[in-house]
Amino acid sequence: MRPVLGMVMLVVVIASGIPAMAHHSGALYFDMTKAITLEGLILRVEWINPHALIFLQSKNEKGELETWTIEGAGLVVVARKPELKERLKAGIWVAARVFPPRNPLYLDDTQTVLLTRPDDPKTSSRIVGGGQIRLSNGDVLDFGGGPKF
Asked: Is 124 helix (H, G, I), strand (E, B) or coil?
């Protein structure tokens, strides 16, 4: 009986670690000790796996337009909050609380945010970790696990 119990426990321990290995650490990608607020116009929203993305056009301190990529919640979270998909659309003005990148990041061809490879010219300092989004009417939506207003 003991060998069977030991094998069952081993399977449970191994299986419980699988979901944790399947996801990246937000703290590896984003500086979770700082938060910034971006304001601008949503250019487009991508409801894709593994994370939804908002492309936000915002002015920098020089008044020049920049496009920021906000990495938000996964599609499982979006499915539980249908108001996100209904209310976050291209052409609306929002303010977003986000975590800045810790390391240079890039967006690959499948729209996945990844750490920069040393030889990759596609790095961007404007990929950020999403938190709350404030709509122009004052409503606040949780787009990701990032900072709050």
From this structure: strand
